[in-house]
Write a structure and sequence with these properties.
The structure holds 2 protein chains of 2 kinds.
Chain A lengths: L1 H30 L4 H12 L2 H9 L5 H19 L1 H30 L10 E4 L5 H10 L3 E5 L4 E6 L5 E8 L3 H5 L5 E2 L14 E4 L1 H8 L9 E4 L2 E8 L13 E4 L7 H6 L5 E5 L5 H17 L15 E3 H6 L2 H33 L1 H9 L4 H37 L14 H27 L3 H7 L6 H37 L9 E6 L3 H4 L2 H16 L4 E7 L9 E7 L12 E7 L2 H6 L3 E4 L14 E5 H7 L9 E4 L6 E7 L17 E6 L17 E7 L6 H12 L5 E6 H8 L1 H35 L1 H9 L4 H30 L15 H27 L3 H5 L3
Parallel strand pairs in A: 4-9, 6-8, 15-20, 17-19
Antiparallel strand pairs in A: 1-10, 1-11, 2-10, 3-4, 3-7, 5-8, 6-9, 7-8, 12-21, 12-22, 13-21, 14-15, 14-18, 16-19, 17-20, 18-19
Chain B lengths: L1 H6 L7 H11 L3 E2 H11 L8 H13 L3 E7 L5 E7 L1 H25 L1 H7 L1
Antiparallel strand pairs in B: 1-3, 2-3
Helix pairs in contact in B: 2-5, 5-6
Classes of the chains: A alpha+beta, B alpha+beta.
Amino acid sequence: MKIPTRRRKQEQELQQEIRAHLDMATHDRIERGESAADAKHSARREFGNVALVEHVTRDQWGWIWLHELGQDLRYGLRIVRRNPGFTAIAVLTLVLGIGANTAIFSLVNGVLLQPLPFPAPDRLVGATIYFPKGAFAILRDRSRTMDIIANTDSTEFNLTGKDLPVRLTGTSVSAKWFSTVGTQAARGRVFQEGEDQPGNENVVILSHSLWERRFSSDPNIIGRSIILDNVNRQVVGVMPASFRWPSPKTELWVPLDLDPRKIGDYWGSSYMPIIARLKPGATVEQARAEIKQLRLQVLASYAWRMPDDTWQKVSIAPLHELLVGDVRERLLLLLGAVGLLLLIACANVANLLLARATTRQKEIALRSALGAGRWRIARQLMTESVLISLLGGALGFGAAIYGLQILKSMLPADMPRLAEVTVDSRVLLFTALLSIATGIIFGLAPVGGTSRLNLTKALKTGDRGGISGTHRLSSLLVAGEVGLSVVLVIAAGLLVKSLWNLSNANPGFRAEKILTARVTPNQSFCAEAGRCQMFYRDLVERVRAVPGVTDVATVNGLPLTGAWDTIPSDIEARPVAPGAHVPMLMERVCTPEYLRIMGISLLQGRGLAEADGAPSAQRVVLISKSTAERFWPGKSPIGEHIKPRWLDTWWTIVGVVGDVREYNMTQNMAEWLDGEFYTMYGAHALNGSGPEAAPAEMTLVIRTTEEQSQVGSELQAIVSSLNGDVPVSQVETLSGWVREAVAGTRSTASLFVIFAALAVILGAIGIYGVISYSVAQRTREIGIRMALGARRSEVLMLIVGRGAKLALAGVFAGLIGALLLTRLMTSLLYGIGSTDPFTYVSVGVLLIFVAVSASYIPARRAMQVDPMVALRYE
Amino acid sequence: MTNRYQNRIELLQGTLDLLVLQTLRWGPSHGYGISQAIKANSNDILQVDTGSLYPALHRLERQKMIAADWKLSENKQRVRVYRLTTAGKKHLLAERSRWSQLSDAIAGVLDPAKRESEA
């Protein structure tokens, strides 16, 4: 507090010094014979502009800008406090704009910008294509540029013990996975070298949440054994709560089972993402070149001849990039949308300030006459606007912390790194900078307006008509606002239509009134196929008997859930040359009822029958329509033969069924798959675990009488009565799976709808404000018009017409903007082009309607102007 | 009037400091007194603009060349009186010799003959 007081004293002394100067000069002149009045006048004239002299003298004191900033701030605060209504509207508008931007930026920051939470994260890279275990071992041993590790996407386990059995999602990792990534256990240790070799792998590391939930945070857990899939594994570590990798669902980690003797598992199935840390001095480019070479060595060491083009496109990319992948585009699009929203908010506040600046003209002219330079006045106005925007920013930051929670719950849970997203210091910095930039941007408008101010005119006439440029500027701002709203509403409209198209696309099956649940005996239980089949058969009979159930089937995986088995296949009619591409077919193992319950249509031949599952029966398959068209174009495939590459006996195609959206709602099949076939669950069912085993991971598909069925709650009891070690998991309606399949589009569309709605509201407020203001300004003119005989309806049209004209200009600009900008989002659209004329026209009409409505209210006020009152108004 | 304005000379940068320090050599004075003294000693040719004088005084004060005290004038008015400090005196001597060097040099350039004869 010392400095301001000293400063004030200095100010007073300067004024006294100058007053003394003037007095002495006057005194001298009087002694020379001038009259007292003349002397005083000439002394003043000789001295010059007192305020200016004070100003330039003060400049010598140092820290002058700080002092003036203090002045500006005090003055600004007074202005802000004296106009609570104006301040509230401006701040609220900014809270919306800045809050939305801060929330979305937190996402962008957490997902795209923050480095991975590991030491030297920029040295972590990954292969762009998955490899099997055998390939991983070769890559790991031979790479000179990378320390290569690998983990399965997910490996599921049955955890049994004294409590009810549960199905847990875990991951199998190579022994040096933890140490290469650079992370430590919270308790115990991570895996050691060699623990992925056969015989050493019966260890497990628990996630913090599993340890807490299932083992009541037992401090003595290390060294204890737990039973996973009927195998005892010793707990060697518990990870910290913050470690949820590779997915937030990961509950436990076990060593990768690298056993070359299990040829099918080692070379055929269990494809994994390959991760690596660059060795010291190595670059991504070197790693990229090396992996191309290593690919050839892997193919040469393969257990069987692979097609020559296998992994041809493999490359190495930064791990962060691989993890974030396609989310980047979606997030940047959202950031763009909130950016537009902020621009609209800026335009709105700029308009408010402009309107106010015209009424403050006299004050500004006065300050200018008293010696305030143009820059000084501009700075004062800027300080005010930055003050308002900082206030909006502070509240917006608070709103964003709250909004982020809502945002996170709206986004698909499988979005990478979503759990890591928090509001950190970088977000705070972003908000602060954004607020200041925002304040400067919308503060520029009134400054631009007032710098054209004609001093004498403003002072003399007290002209309320406004600075001519101000009106044009505010019209421009409002039209721009409408234009930006049009862009946002069109984007939202396109996304909503895409969501509608997706949700109503025919997936090839009927999702209503179907309950699904995974029932998963241990692999060891199903090693004896007959026992496993009997279990499922009994289960189906029990569930069928539950009231409310009309039909039951089992299948090895549901459409849209990412569960499928891929079988490299031979097609009798199309022999494959050695080294050429082998058709990859997707296998659905099911009971005959499956096709009926799902409503998958039979197009040719016959369906599956119970008898097809008998050990003595001839092996038969159904294929999908597109598979038939691909391999037997223009011919009937009935009676043709296919088989898995490693079998000797051909399977006979007996039927063709309709295509199903197996992969996602826009694509029947992943690009790397060439077709699909269905086989009967029975004696012949294929299984990676061994020729005698039956698939141990089947899903119950239950047709119920109601969409919301209570059957799910009884399932575990039924299953436990048959086998106490078998867990029930993923109890979910089929409609729920369909909803989940469009979750990404739904969340993006919902967010856009929210932003678009805010944009329209802000745009409407903007038009309302400008028209109201112009009505207030033109009250006198309207009075004269009416006194001269203008009808009220004409006045109404005059005002509404102005609003409509603004809107029209804005809509036109917005449509052009949308044409250019919506091209960026084509990959998010489905069943609709980014230039869909219907959307464009209806949004244009909607916005004009909103604009006309917004100007109707002030126009009514204008209509009710009493000419006599209006003429006496000034 | 016109004549007087034409004869006014814009002071060189730094010259005002020299004039102020030199004026204060005759004794402490206030701002008005300094401006009047410069004007009188230059036969009304040097008119010190208040917009330059006061910043110069405050700058010199900050540089500790001069010091200021509040005193009562003959008219019993509180005036701010500036006096030369020891540092100011040293600075003035140095500046004066630089100034005479400079004016000799300029004179030499303007009138080479004179310099020859002196040599």
